[in-house]
């Protein structure tokens, strides 16, 4: 007989074990789906998870893909840890890209070492500005940050549409919805000849280190943790809640904005309508899969990044519909949330002895 | 152990056999990169019909659907170029820069980019269809069938391709009915059933009783069916989605071009080109004409279709005036391709301004 017993305390070991379990279950369920669709499960999984990163180029593409996911997820973890549900990282990414792209266009056909830092900074500021809207509305007007931040995603995309169709569109581009290409001085340097991996990865790594330091070594980190456990306790302890809320939103917005900068000044090199395949939303999965822990997020961003690459490879070589990539992302989150049950409950097998 | 040996022997024999067979047959492989799902019943669906024609001609094909125009396009292209594909068709405007970038690194692979204008390397060709010829037909039908003299038009993006379509449609409608007005709603999307349906609804509310579209979903014809007004299918024959509303469709027929180009690669005769084919070359096809249209209109349309195909009639024949009354094309002249390619002004009779 099986009996479910509530745990006295959430298990620390299980806390880090469930993400691994979720990935494992996703692989099993994924294999099953491939089988039902009529593909050989192991071969399909191989094309999904191994072939895409089997060579140097593939591996660099994995890092390229993981960079924005990691950066945004780190930012989100500041919010999520402190009970602030910023769902609008995609909007902050877009707005950051708009501001930094605008600055990059100002420096069109100009060269200079100072251009790139200004462009990067502009992106971070853009993301912060955009994240400050839900933060200020939450702290001073008690609005729901989930709704506000989510709705602002669509607003930012419409602003981007307007700009690339209208005032910022390439004058030599037959009115197609895209801007001019940025000058080389406004682009992130490539790390290796022939690969697309760029200096933006250092921004992500810096975010990882800084967030680890803030989370575990500073008073702010402690405040966030307490607020995460219980807002009432935080209030009782006399923490300045409003300041912290705004601060975590700003950090989160800056990270998302930087991710946007990395895309447009890295592999894309201009502004157009499709600068992000929903990195801002996928990063939410990454943040939770990584347990809001900086190191966990690095691994999680790599795992989720590979679902993007794998979906392409599997379609090219096995004609598996590309949308299975999204199915995998969904399954990872689903199994993670489901297995979180084990955090609070344990399953006891009771022998049939009399 | 010997079981293993036998098995590997047999499998290598099979492999050898398939290798020789494919080497004897046409071993050219074509790849297609799609912006949407193959089941959109619009733009991507028609490209996939074209791909199937290539398969039917005996060539191997690969496709990747739903490839965003973000940084991902370049990786997909490179992967295709790297995995033994000889010609790659990139079927959305946003793939223009990635296509040229990857083409530079793979000079032996041919690239065919739909609807773009950049051919930066000798292995890049571009192709597009003269959809505006189809819209001349639709305009003729709309101008005849409307009772309210208000025609709705759901447009995607203010680029020359779309402006040209609106103009050609309006000119043809004016020819049969000088009182008509074309009302435009810009949906700012190529494919978004929700937005498209809303746009159609807004036009119907403003009195439009015929709706034309330059977006790809079937939402507009379905909305027209519900409201009891006429509509035209876009990209594929949409009659089955709205049998009462759809009078005819303008189909994108890429198959012949695709087969032609893949064969050229196989024969070693592929060369860089900028192709712009219309009704005459069969890239633009008019679906069956609905029986709700009067017989004389149907025969008129058939004749117009033949004249457009033979070149006897041109969609942009002067005199053509812009909205402000300035002469765009003089009497007896036709607009040249340069003018068509950069067309960014409305002709007289179109309401509103082009979004800037």
Task: Summarize the structure in words.
The complex is a heterodimer of chains A (354) and B (356). With 354 residues, chain A is an all-alpha fold. Chain A has a single domain, classed as ABC transporter involved in vitamin B12 uptake, BtuC (Orthogonal Bundle). Helices cover 69% and strands 3% of the residues of chain A. Chain A has helices at residues 12-37, 41-49, 56-81, 89-106, 115-141, 145-165, 200-217, 219-229, 231-236, 241-268, 279-289, 294-318, 324-339, 341-344, and strands at residues 2-6, 345-349. Chain A is globular. The mean pLDDT of chain A is 91. Chain B folds into two domains: 17-129 and 254-277, Rossmann fold (3-Layer(aba) Sandwich); 131-252 and 316-341, Rossmann fold. In chain B, strand 13 and strand 14 (327-329) form a beta hairpin. Chain B is globular. At the A-B interface, helix 3, helix 10 and helix 12 of A face strand 2 and helix 3 of B.
Per-chain topology:
The complex is a heterodimer of chains A (354) and B (356).
Chain A (H helix, E strand, L loop, with lengths): L1 E5 L5 H26 L3 H9 L6 H26 L7 H18 L8 H27 L3 H21 L34 H18 L1 H11 L1 H6 L4 H28 L10 H11 L4 H25 L5 H16 L1 H4 E5 L5
Antiparallel strand pairs in A: 1-2
Chain B lengths: L1 H23 L4 E5 L9 H14 L3 E5 L7 H11 L4 E4 L5 H10 L4 E5 L9 E6 L1 H15 L4 E6 L4 H17 L4 E6 L6 H13 L4 E4 L5 H9 L2 E6 L10 E7 L2 H13 L6 E4 L6 E3 L8 H16 L9 E2 L5 E3 L7 H5 L15
Helix pairs in contact in B: 2-9, 3-4, 5-6, 5-10, 7-8
């Amino acid at each position: 007989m099986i009996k479910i017993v509530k745990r006295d305390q959430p298990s620390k070991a299980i806390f880090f074990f469930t993400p691994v379990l979720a990935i494992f279950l996703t692989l099993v369920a994924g294999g099953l789906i491939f089988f039902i669709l009529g593909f050989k499960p192991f071969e399909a999984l191989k094309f999904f998870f191994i072939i895409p990163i089997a060579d140097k180029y593939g591996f660099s593409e994995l890092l390229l893909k993981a960079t924005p996911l990691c950066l945004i997820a780190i930012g989100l973890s500041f919010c999520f840890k402190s009970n602030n549900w910023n769902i609008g990282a995609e909007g902050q990414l877009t707005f950051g890209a708009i501001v930094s792209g605008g600055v990059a266009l100002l420096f069109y056909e100009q060269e200079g070492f100072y251009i790139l830092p200004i462009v990067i900074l502009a992106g971070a500021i853009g993301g912060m500005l955009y994240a400050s809207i839900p933060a200020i509305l939450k702290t001073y007007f008690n609005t729901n940050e989930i709704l506000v931040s989510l709705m602002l995603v669509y607003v930012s995309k419409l602003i981007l549409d307007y700009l690339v169709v209208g005032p910022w569109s390439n004058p030599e581009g037959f009115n197609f919805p895209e801007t001019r290409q940025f000058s080389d001085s406004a682009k992130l340097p490539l790390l290796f000849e022939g690969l697309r991996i760029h200096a933006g990865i250092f921004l992500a790594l810096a975010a990882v280190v800084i967030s680890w330091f803030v989370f575990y070594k500073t008073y702010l980190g402690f405040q966030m943790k307490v607020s995460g456990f219980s807002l009432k306790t935080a209030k009782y302890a006399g923490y300045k809640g409003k300041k912290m809320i705004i601060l975590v939103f700003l950090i989160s917005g800056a990270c998302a904005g930087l991710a946007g900068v990395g895309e447009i000044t890295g592999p894309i090199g201009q502004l157009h309508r499709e600068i992000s395949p929903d990195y801002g939303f996928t990063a939410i999965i990454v943040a939770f899969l990584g347990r809001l822990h900086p190191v966990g997020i690095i691994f999680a961003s790599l795992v989720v990044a590979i679902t993007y690459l794998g979906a392409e490879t599997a379609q090219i070589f096995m004609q598996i519909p590309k949308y299975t990539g999204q199915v995998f992302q969904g399954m990872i989150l689903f199994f993670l949330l489901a297995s979180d049950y084990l955090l609070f409950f344990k399953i006891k097998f009771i022998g049939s002895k009399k | 152990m010997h079981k293993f040996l036998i098995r590997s022997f047999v499998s290598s024999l099979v492999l050898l056999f398939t290798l020789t067979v494919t080497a004897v047959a046409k071993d050219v492989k074509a790849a297609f990169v799609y912006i949407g799902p193959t089941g959109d019943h619009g733009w991507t669906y028609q490209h996939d019909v074209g791909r199937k024609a290539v398969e039917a001609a005996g060539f191997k094909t690969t496709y990747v659907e739903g490839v965003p125009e973000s940084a991902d396009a370049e990786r997909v292209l490179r992967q295709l170029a790297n995995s033994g594909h000889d010609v790659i068709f990139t079927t959305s405007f946003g793939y223009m820069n990635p296509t040229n970038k990857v083409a530079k690194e793979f000079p032996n692979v041919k690239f065919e980019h739909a609807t773009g204008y950049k051919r930066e390397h000798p292995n890049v060709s571009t192709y597009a269809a003269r959809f505006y010829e189809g819209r001349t037909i639709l305009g003729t039908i709309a101008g005849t069938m409307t009772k309210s003299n208000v025609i709705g038009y759901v447009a995607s993006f203010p680029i020359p391709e779309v402006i040209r379509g609106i103009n050609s449609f309006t000119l043809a409608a004016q020819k049969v009915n000088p009182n008509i007005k074309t009302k435009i709603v810009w949906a700012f999307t190529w494919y978004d059933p929700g937005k498209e349906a809303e746009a159609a609804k807004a036009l119907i509310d403003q009195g439009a009783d015929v709706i034309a579209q330059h977006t790809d979903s079937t939402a507009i014809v379905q909305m027209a069916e519900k409201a009891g007004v006429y509509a035209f299918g876009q990209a594929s024959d949409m009659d089955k989605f709205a049998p009462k509303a759809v009078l005819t469709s303008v189909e994108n027929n890429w198959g012949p071009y695709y087969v032609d180009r893949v064969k050229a690669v196989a024969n070693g005769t592929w060369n860089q080109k900028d192709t712009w084919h219309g009704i005459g070359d069969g890239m633009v096809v008019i679906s069956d004409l609905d029986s709700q249209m009067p017989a004389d209109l149907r025969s008129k349309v058939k004749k117009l279709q033949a004249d457009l195909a033979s070149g006897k009639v041109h969609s942009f024949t002067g005199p053509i005036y812009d909205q402000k009354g300035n002469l765009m094309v003089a009497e007896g002249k036709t607009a040249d391709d340069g003018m068509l390619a950069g067309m960014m002004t409305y002709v007289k009779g179109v309401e509103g301004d082009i979004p800037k």
